[in-house]
Amino acid sequence: MTGNIELLKGAIALIGYGLAAVGPGIGIGIVVGNAITAMARQPEMAGTIRTTMFLGIAFTEALALIGFVLFFIA
Amino acid sequence: MDPLILASECDVANEVICAPANVKELFEFHDAIFTIGGVAITRTMILMFLAAFIVIGLLYFGLRRQRLVPSKFDVMIESLVAFVRDGVAKDIIGPEGVKYVPYLLSIFLFILVGNLFEITPLVNFPITSRMAIPFFLAIVTYVIFVIMGFAKNGFKYVLDTIWPRHVPIGLRWLVGLIELVSIFVLRPFTLAVRLFANMVAGHLMLTLLLGSGVIFVLAVGDIGARSIIGIPWFALGLGIYLFEIVVAVLQAYIFTLLSAVYIQSSVHFEH
Fold first, then answer.
1. Looking at beta carbons, which residues of chain B come within 8 Å of A54?
2. First-to-last CA distance in chain B?
3. Whose CA is closest to A53, among A40, A67, A39, A42?
4. Which residues pair with B39 in a beta bridge?
5. Is pLDDT at B21 greater than 60 in this prediction?
6. Chain B residues contacting A via beta carbons under 8 Å
7. Residue B124 region by backbone torsions, left for phi larger than 0, else alpha for psi between -120 and 50, else beta
8. Is the CB of A73 inside 8 Å of chain B's CB atoms?
9. What's the average model confidence in pLDDT over B35-64?
10. What whole-number distance in Å separates Cα of residue B110 and Cα of residue A70?
11. DSSP at B8
């Protein structure tokens, strides 16, 4: 059995990016879902909650984006 | 016309979508347009200076004179300034956040204009998708929040980071280590990568979808009815185009917001 691992590199990087996207996907869902619940309960706090929600999304999203960058570097 | 050139070696008779032959070409520096005294000027640099001049022009002509009844343009610029001052600086940092408004407003408008180049027809290239620019802006934020941390809290800033007193003694070294790495190493890195990766992802999607659409439709003479593949690609590309307007504004906002949060967390260190 002969093979060239170089040919598989792109495919492996793609799987790695897919795995890196799973956690942040769930995380952003939780962040936004809870923010919507909070806004529905206390509409007068919507501005503060929205700012905090964007912060939470930004922190969670970073992991997926690092995976995206590593996909190109690999 | 960059994306079309990159994808033009596409085999329209067999492929379903026109990926650029080598995606890495999108990240390479193109040849210098001209040279001034040994410094090569590329398209990215021209766009960078253009963005800076647009920001200076907007602020100069918007805030040049205070009128009793401001014009529509003046109101727009004033509301942008008020948004950064009240919505970001005062909300996040507190009353003393006013002195950071010039910096926050500059990076917000510069990144906003740079991001909006992505969806400007005939430019179609976000300058923030070159790592040098977001990374430089992140380093400026990093220098500001580290200096302010030392100026406000003295040496206690680093000492309390690596030896947090509110944490149980057994875990103190571990929490301190994580905090040290996350504040002084990961913060500037993730701040830059967040903006960079978002803009690269958007730029690639637009290149892939709009480029494929145009190439398939233009090849109608060679491949006949098969060129209908291009229409859904182009329609999807236009949908992503609208989405990218939101992403461009949101990423400029998030970069500014996180800069303010980092400054706040080192100024009011004990919280």
1. 250, 253-254, 257
2. 51
3. A39
4. B36
5. no
6. 23-24, 27, 87, 91-92, 190, 193-194, 196-198, 200-201, 250, 253-254, 257-258, 261
7. left
8. no
9. 86
10. 27
11. T
Type of residue numbered B190: T
Per the rule left: phi > 0, alpha: psi between -120 and 50, beta: everything else, B30 is beta
Contact B203, B26 (CB under 8 A): yes
Torsion A46-B87-B254-A56 (CA) sign: negative
Does the CB of A72 have a partner CB in chain B at under 8 Å?
Answer: yes
The distance of B197 to chain A (nearest Cα, Å) reads: 6
Q: Between B256 and A73, where is the model more confident?
A: B256
DSSP code, position B30: P
In DSSP notation, B158-206 reads HHHHHS-TTS-GGGHHHHHHHHHHIIIIIHHHHHHHHHHHHHHHHHHHH
How many CB atoms lie under 10 A from the CB of residue B160? 16
pTM (2 decimals)?
0.86
ipTM surpassing 0.85: no
pLDDT tens digits, one per residue of B208-224 = 888 888 888 887 777 77
> Which of B23, B194, B257 lies closest to A65 in CB terms?
B194
- Angstrom CA distances, B27 to B73, B174, B197, B203, stand at 37, 38, 12, 11
Task: Report how far apart, in Å, the C-alpha atoms of B129 and of each of A57, B134, B224, B247, B251 are.
Answer: 20, 8, 37, 13, 12
- Find out whether A57 and A13 touch, Cβ atoms under 8 Å: no
Residues in chain A: 74
Indicate the DSSP class of residue B88. I
DSSP lists the bridge partners of residue B34 as: B41
Return the number of other C-beta atoms located less than 10 Å from residue B211's C-beta. Answer: 26
Taking alpha carbons only, the member of B110, B244, B262 closest to residue B189 is B262
